[in-house]
């Protein structure tokens, strides 16, 4: 389902151009609006659809196997932390509204700034631990697993 | 050429490609390198790039040691049996012992992870998979990477790694171009963590026309992880181990949640279970060690993914297709029905679109499945990638050369698809590998290993000429013809990609030959691959966007050539259902219970192949689940 852009809704803002992972949403030089320049490199990932402030981008299933007359629309709201989908089938029998959370917390506020975290000790540098470990591995006082702690060794040859 | 040259100098850690592996590296690097200069170069926009761009509905690699569920070695054994023994168990154990800490931090950052209301633990889809509302998985980890990095360069297609002119076989950064402005970018860096992707679109896809974009792995996964590292002369491993996916037909929607959580199952056109009838013959090919129905039944040891593919492929070839996914039972439960749809919307919207377009209602109809064209990658149920050092406390001598996740090129690290022998890492494991690589890269710098680094102006200029050659070539030869795409002295990137796909398909075991190849076919294929490589010197790019496609194709070609050499080298059929060596149709543990390792000489383009020993984790307790069961049953 490559994407396409409705002429009357697009104002050429370029949000889709900015986000497209495949670099296929470009601005048409004549109409000053966006369009999909390479439909066979479109993964139908909906990144541009979600990013469009005017809901100007939609998807029409791949011509080589998808009949016309369907619709899968989406509204993604970062502030509310939800995404809402509506799926309509060609024959109209399936008409689903589905809602899912996209985050449980305000956006980006709960990711620590590691530059401000206490510097690791030399002992930690020499260990196998990563940031926040061992605590975050098990969320208790247990330590990181090693071959020794788990009663293992490595052996060359054919084992199954 | 009018394009500017932009130089970013004195970088300590350059992350080339910021998917899950790259974001993990960029984020963690700041902790170990407080005053280090961390720079990210990403081909797209870091907020929606890589294989997880559209989201995920599950995290497929989570041990749950916190809830007493699994130990790292259990996961290693699972990956080992799934990959028919061919994995790097030191790297896998290392990934598995750290992966939970990544997931717990994701939850703290705001990732909606579903919980089991009864036990309070994460809701399991399967033994290793937990269910998430992961539509915003990528923007979330991108935010973490952006917090740590000094600079994130979006829309930079990295084309080559820079090599140190002062010391042989030492990395010194990377070069590429901005896919919007066309500017040439030079990153001089003490270390590089390659977080670029595996390869879709190197084998001819089943779909034609527009549908060629509906590949299983993202179309922007251009094998650049391999292209970059192979060009630099890094050793690669297990490149023959391509993967074929059994998925919903045409849309390639995921089946994991369907099998594991919705308890759907497959049947042939007559409504019969078909797998077991192929297993006795298959057991003759692979041996009882790899396929033992009784043992699998008792111990819940999984049947390797490739072997289940084998049954699928043979059932269809015998005239009993199509294979259906039986959804009509599960979808009667409205809750499960909703999960079935959410599963697609969360990670493969295209499948929902296809069902809407074709009026498939899985409540009343069992949808068709298919087996995909092959993919070359290293984080799903397959382990292609660079030959990397393991961690000090786990790795035997043959697997250890100083720094965790460092390739055989000094200062060059990998994460995610880039690292070979580590299947079943998936998103969380790739992020974890990035973290491990970042810590090791910081130690490498602190140990003074990058001192005296020098990048000559000659190298920078030489690469620049190479990078823009497809555009120069177009300019020179375009005027030979009136109009159109047919020219005697160049091909465009799409034409080149079509040629690569056809070549790989027919000679290296794609869908049109039912995944079959042999020595003769591969030898012919390699000859044709060489002429393709020559013709790619004459690839023409009309604009900067086509230049991007030209370099993606060059990376895909390098990855493909490596796949052919590896496939030729391993004289056995190790993974029936992924591919078949028609001249060696059996598993041969006597000669081939080894990892394959290759190196392409960057100067001559010649390949050398070698075998590396396989080490396995051996211990008293065979498997935690099995041990629990035994203790319960009093065995």
TrEMBL record, chain A:
UniProt entry keywords in alphabetical sequence: 4Fe-4S, Iron, Iron-sulfur, Metal-binding
Instruction: Note the Pfam families from the entry.
Output: APS-reductase_C, Fer4_7
Q: Which Gene3D superfamilies match?
A: 3.30.70.20, Adenylylsulphate reductase, beta subunit, C-terminal domain (6.20.260.10)
**Domain annotation 4Fe-4S ferredoxin-type: ranges:** 1-30, 33-62
Q: Which InterPro entries match?
A: 4Fe4S_Fe-S-bd, 4Fe4S_Fe_S_CS, AprB, AprB_C, APS_reduc_Bsu_C_sf, Fe-S_Ferredoxin
One GO MF annotation is: 4 iron, 4 sulfur cluster binding
Instruction: Give the superkingdom in one word.
Output: Bacteria
This chain's protein is named Adenylyl-sulfate reductase subunit beta
Q: Which organism is it from?
A: Solemya elarraichensis gill symbiont
TrEMBL record, chain B:
Q: Where is the FAD-dependent oxidoreductase 2 FAD-binding domain?
A: 12-241
- Official protein name in the record: Adenylyl-sulfate reductase subunit alpha
Transmembrane annotation, as ranges: none
Fumarate reductase/succinate dehydrogenase flavoprotein-like C-terminal domain: from which residue to which, for each copy?
Answer: 499-614
Read off the lineage from the record.
Answer: Bacteria, Pseudomonadati, Pseudomonadota, Gammaproteobacteria, sulfur-oxidizing symbionts
Pathway annotation from the record? Carbohydrate metabolism; tricarboxylic acid cycle
At the top level, the lineage of the source is Bacteria
Q: Which UniProt keywords apply?
A: Flavoprotein, Oxidoreductase
NCBIfam families, A to Z: aprA (TIGR02061)
Q: Which organism is it from?
A: Solemya elarraichensis gill symbiont
Q: Name one GO cellular component term.
A: plasma membrane
Q: Which cofactor does it need?
A: FAD
Indicate the secretion signal residues: none
MF-aspect GO terms = electron transfer activity; flavin adenine dinucleotide binding; succinate dehydrogenase activity
